[in-house]
């Protein structure tokens, strides 16, 4: 076995360079967004740069452990995340403030706010990957019964944090957990005799729910808060609610549309968009750098997803494959949902644009997840007299 590789050869430089490009794009967009009067003297761009430094430190620490070690401590991480989520429901408001209609953050002196669900996403990915890998190792001969048993175990592991996040409530994060679970289920090996009717049923229920909301809202009004229904109506017909619930959406579309092909230039915006340094950072990019700038951001995400997919195809470890699938699903859904909601393609859910939007918990959580990808490269082994590699 040949382990005599140079340290630099063990670094995933392609991913590192991509993250540097994301960092530059993020700081540039945030430095422009913070010029609006709503932020005063707060230097969010400087803070984002510092958060990226912390993120790279997190990646370095994560690389110290190989993926087998992460598999062994999967339940420790998962349990720790569950404790943090439960704490949000029982801690006093002095520690868990009510922000943006939810109890989703811890508030600490000096450090600021911390959103545990951002870390729980990756903890859940690791736990689900262990469940699927262990199940497939135990049940070498697959049957419908064994697949249903695996699906039940996946449902329990993903369902606990899902229920706790629903109590906050945080719809956007709940949708991310659904995307993560679906991504891992798709590569888990469960037969399509189960998956096809399951996904078909979910799709039919979603379509039915949307139809009821549009044409017969009185049937479900008692099961939803008024603001949730208003959010759907404002998405379907934003200009009817442009002075209220759809104000962010209409201003976002105006900003992006006014950027045209080349944009208005750095710090040369005319359209005011609330929360433009966090959830609506893509509106800043669209207005100032136009279609060209927006395309660059989208291309960065395509390159990131392509790289993560390539890693998952190269690895020989099933556990690593499931981890990659969860991370790919998480980042893809985040990016698609965030960009989609700024252009009315999808409803507004308060999901940040990963690696671009300002936000400590979101950025550190994503960097921790990507640290697992770095670990796969850093600890891979090449065996003599064999073309097989374990990544």
From TrEMBL:
Topology relative to the membrane: Multi-pass membrane protein
InterPro entries tied to this protein: FtsW/RodA (IPR001182)
Membrane-crossing residue ranges in chain numbering: 12-33, 45-65, 77-99, 119-136, 148-165, 171-192, 199-224, 289-307, 319-336, 356-374
Entry's localization field: Membrane
Gene Ontology MF terms in the entry: lipid-linked peptidoglycan transporter activity
Keyword list, A-Z: Cell cycle, Cell division, Cell shape, Membrane, Transmembrane, Transmembrane helix
GO biological process annotation, one example: regulation of cell shape
Location, primary (coarse class): membrane
GO CC annotation: cell division site; plasma membrane
Taxonomic superkingdom: Bacteria
Protein name: Cell division protein FtsW
């Amino acid at each position: 076995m040949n382990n005599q590789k140079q340290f630099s050869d063990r670094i995933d430089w392609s991913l590192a360079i991509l993250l540097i490009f994301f960092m530059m794009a993020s700081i540039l967009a945030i430095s422009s967004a913070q010029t609006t009067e709503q932020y005063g003297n707060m230097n969010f761009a400087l803070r984002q740069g510092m958060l990226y430094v912390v993120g790279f430190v997190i990646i370095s620490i994560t690389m110290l452990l190989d993926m087998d070690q992460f598999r062994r401590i999967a339940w420790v991480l998962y349990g720790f995340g569950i404790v943090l989520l439960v704490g949000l429901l029982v801690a006093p408001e002095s520690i868990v403030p009510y922000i943006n209609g939810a109890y989703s953050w811890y508030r600490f002196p000096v450090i600021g706010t911390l959103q545990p669900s951002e870390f729980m996403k990756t903890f859940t990915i690791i736990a689900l990957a262990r469940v699927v890998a262990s199940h497939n190792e135990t049940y070498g001969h697959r049957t419908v019964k064994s697949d249903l048993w695996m699906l039940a175990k996946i449902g329990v592991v993903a369902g606990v944090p899902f229920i706790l996040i629903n109590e906050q409530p945080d719809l956007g994060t709940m949708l991310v957990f659904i995307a993560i679970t679906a991504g891992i289920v798709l590569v888990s090996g469960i037969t399509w005799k189960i998956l096809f009717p399951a996904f078909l049923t979910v799709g039919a229920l979603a379509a039915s729910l949307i139809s009821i909301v549009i044409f017969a809202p009185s049937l479900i009004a008692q099961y939803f808060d008024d603001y949730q229904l208003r959010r759907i109506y404002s998405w379907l017909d934003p200009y009817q609610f442009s002075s209220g619930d759809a104000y962010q959406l209409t201003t976002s579309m105006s900003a992006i549309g006014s950027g045209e092909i080349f944009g208005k230039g750095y710090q040369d915006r005319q359209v005011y968009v609330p929360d433009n340094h966090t959830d609506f950072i893509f509106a800043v990019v669209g207005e100032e750098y136009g279609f060209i700038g927006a395309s660059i951001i989208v291309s960065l995400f395509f390159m990131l997803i392509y790289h993560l997919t390539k890693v998952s195809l190269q690895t020989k470890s099933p556990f690593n494959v499931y981890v990659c699938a969860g991370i790919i699903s998480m980042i893809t859904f985040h990016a698609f949902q965030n960009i989609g909601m700024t252009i009315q393609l999808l409803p507004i859910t308060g999901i940040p644009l990963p690696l671009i939007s300002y936000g400590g918990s979101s950025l550190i959580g994503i960097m921790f997840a990507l640290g697992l990808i770095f670990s796969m490269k850093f600890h891979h082994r090449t065996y003599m007299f064999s073309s097989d590699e374990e990544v």
